[in-house]
Amino acid sequence: MGLKRWNKILAAFLCLSMAFSEPAAMVLASPVVEESIAEEGEIVSGEADSGDSVQGDVISENLVQEDSTSDNAVSDNMISDNVVPENTESENEIAAPDDTVPDSEAAEEGALNDTTEEIEVSTASVSEDGVSENTISINAVSDNAAETEYYGVMPDDLVIESLEEQLGSGRSAVARSASLYEDVTGAELPAEYDARNYGYVTESRHQSTSQLCWAFSMASVIESNMLKKQFEGADRDTLQISPGHLGYFFYHHVDDELGGTAGASIQVVKDGLHDDYYSRGGNTTCATFELAGWVGPVEEAKAPFVDGRATEYDDSIAYEDISHMQNAYWVNARDKDYIKSLIMEFGSVTVNCRMEESSKNIIQCADGTASYFYQGNDKVNHAITIIGWNDDYSKDNFKSCGNTDTSNNNSPALENGAWLIKDSYGSDNNRVDGCFYMSYEDAALHINSNKAIAYDVESADNYDHNYFYDAACGLQTMAFKNSIYGANVFQAKGNKETGGESIEAVSFATASTAASYSIQIYTGLRSPQENPTSGRAVFAEPQTGSFAYAGYHTVKLDTPVMVPEGEYFSVVISLEKEDGTVSFMTDESYSNGWAKYTAAVEPGRSFYGTDGLEWTDAAERVTQGERR
User: Which end of the chain is more exposed for a tag (fewer CB within 10 A), N or C?
Assistant: First the structure.
């Protein structure tokens, strides 16, 4: 009997989720942070709380996220397959996370060093409630923002390796990289660019008293991408994406349609002052995984942002999105030419800065513009949107602020050149039409853990279902030297009426840069809970490709894969980087000082390994603090 219709699905292989309340388990996440080098076969993990799963999505013609509830399930959004590294039993195999937030200097010291063969990981104990008491010193997300003034950004210490240091800087280097990596475009980079001139920028909004700058900036970047891609009905004068929806549902988990994320949650860490999503703040890197799960974006009309209070929205609109994020490109904020390339290709990027007394330090300039130039050494506290640049913007327009030695304030920049910034405070405090210029030399842009992010979206009807397990949205990682394998196992169950799914794309997340991937799909698994390759390999040869940018990647399959209803299938992904380190993001249960993440992890969902032959269940992985 023939199948009447095959749904198109996305298989997301986002990340491994790890939990640490009991023996810790993890799920591999597709985004990988590679900032610590592991010996071949050795795993380096970031923060963890309890339960892990590998982040990834599988896309059938319409992706539906499937959440995992196990302690360590590999999330495989069928859109892409993330490879989960295999655990070893060496003493420093897994770093146990803690709740403390390392400063940016410590984060830089914990970055991957290609010349280092050994990795030092701080030991950590795990409390009875599953929240680890100490953070890992490597690839940990630092989030102790309660001690500093902030406008809504909770900083993290995830360091993305500089592409300019690896691939070279300048227009010619970017063009050369475009010939090597699928996600780099070779567009010519002019000396001056303003996305407003092309109709790609919506009107600046005002975040009021909220700490939602991160959500406002994300919304602005998505709006720019929709306008640049000429989405049907998108108009720069009327298009508004709800920052309230992004903020509320980041902290208010709703199980996905396929049930893969049942049991997952993100809760605000309350301190008496920041006790809800409106006042707590957030992080655009973490929120990448909110978008990957199709939680937003929605139009402002469906989830209106209300000044002065934390609006609660109905659970029914959690997944009512107007577009699906396909890719999120994370780039070190110092990589000027690669950021320019992303703006040219996608419309704009979000980045963090240190905003200090904007009423005093955003200044009016004689040429009719506004400028801001921070030269202190504090952490970032505010998310902004870069919509252009001017290499010849006068250095004399800048008056520095933030220096510990105040006698060094009010100094000009050393060189000409600035980013054009769209902010989320309307035209307050000297902003011109909601915008100002920020010197290329701004100190916050040179913090090693600061990242610029571009979001690439498609129509919300591109797939029917999104299979995935990771929903905790943390920034833990697992790294291997040279290569890593990861797999997520799913059961086709989104098309009971007509009998099957058509896997159209696979997604994965990684903190690695300048690496290659390989994708294979197995159907008819005989031992789905033990071996993700115990079925039939669909492709005669794995589908391969390369990427330069860290972040979340969606790969459309050259040939869709048909899976009957009820059958188990797997997405297996390997990442490789010669003489380098590759990693997967891991969806883990942990607390980082501003949010408590609970990953949904179960045995038999997420696996990792070093050769694609022998596999370790991510749910069985325990932390260094529990097993030495």
Answer: N
